[in-house]
Amino acid sequence: MNTKWGRTAVMTLALTSGFMYTAQPLQADAATSQEMTQKKVKIDKKIKKLDNEIKDLKKKLQKKMEDYKVTQKDLKKVNASIVETEKRIENRSEIIDDRLKAYQKNDSTVSPYIEAVLGSDSITDLVSRAMSVKTIIDADQNLLEEQEDDKQKLADQKDDLEKTKVKLQKQFQQMQEEENALETKKVENKVKSLELKKQIASKKEEERIAKELKEKEKEAQKLKDLQNTQFVSDASNADNDNNASNADNDNNAGNGNNGGSPDDGNQSAPNVSGSQAATAAIAEASKYLGTSYVWGGSNPASGFDCSGLTQWSFKQAGYSLPRTAAQQYLATKKIDRSSAKAGDLVFFSYGSGVAHVGIYLGNNRMLDAQNNGVVVESLDWWNQYLVGFGRVSGVN
Fold first, then answer.
1. Which parts of 31-122 fold into alpha helices (H)?
2. Once rounded to an integer, what is the mean pLDDT over residues 278-305?
3. 4 vs 307, which has greater pLDDT?
4. How far, in Å, are 21, 53, 353, 359 from residue 8 at the CA level?
5. Hey, is 191 helix, strand or coil?
6. Is 204 in a helix, a strand, or coil?
7. Which region holds residue 386: left if phi is over 0, alpha if psi is between -120 and 50, else beta?
8. Per-residue pLDDT tens for 108-160?
9. Helices marked H in 273-376 — which ranges?
């Protein structure tokens, strides 16, 4: 499946199973109410089993989020340790510099030992002076060696920090992909429930539910197909993408190696031009800049995850979006990157399905809720996961 987006996404559809729902027609000879009830009990047991599987998955996802928060605290401790080490190195450098200046105050070409010999009054005085100078020089050498040890420890700490950041990012991506799988199961569960209702409904009610069931079947199939779609970024466009963003780098956040953070760049409400609907949605999302990411959050009271923020912001502007990033991807019109405007949505994948969404601001920037919180950031780091841009009907 080839797209015409500015950054090409090559999709390889890997359907692992024939995912198709077929509503069972009512038999010509109507079953008794007792037979229908017995059949309903069996189907309800199957649905309950699916519900329990979903609950177990939610617990695992919550545990991963708790582990993520603990690791974030550990990162703060490491950063504090690095700052203290740098201060000690700076202080020791100043001490050594002061002593070297004192040695060379009168004549930088004369060693402290020669000065001690020439200035001594006796052998005893000579020995005493020489020992004193040697003690000072040895102390300076020890300080220099300690300084080198501190520098090595600092390098090791920075290396550990970078590895931890990569580990955290991969963990978060895994959580988002599991969220996609969870939402797909929810849709499957809903379809089974509608099938059961259809079996026990009147003919008139059956026709209404059959139409709803068909829509849900299509939605379930689309989500299943999307979940099984492998997105591979076109690396040949990477240089062009980076060059296009250079003009805006001075004011963009998001130059970190795992996306932006509330401490990056200018995190005030972005000033963008666009349609009334687009600017209204962006203004609403801007209210929550700097707030923490909340798993499953979809409103200001609970907090926001990525798709919760986009859904809420566009709802306040008068436009309805489905709940998840994958559903929002399916619900929007796909557009070229060169045609994207402020207020369009931008979608990302970590390999399987669509897992992240942000509001495009123009000039290679977006506003999104990610693991570091709600931020305005550059697309530079995110280009490696870019799927494409989508337009909400009626917004632009």
1. 33-103, 112-118
2. 95
3. 307
4. 32, 37, 16, 19
5. helix
6. helix
7. beta
8. 444 555 555 566 566 776 566 667 766 776 776 777 677 778 778 877 877 78
9. 276-286, 306-316, 325-331
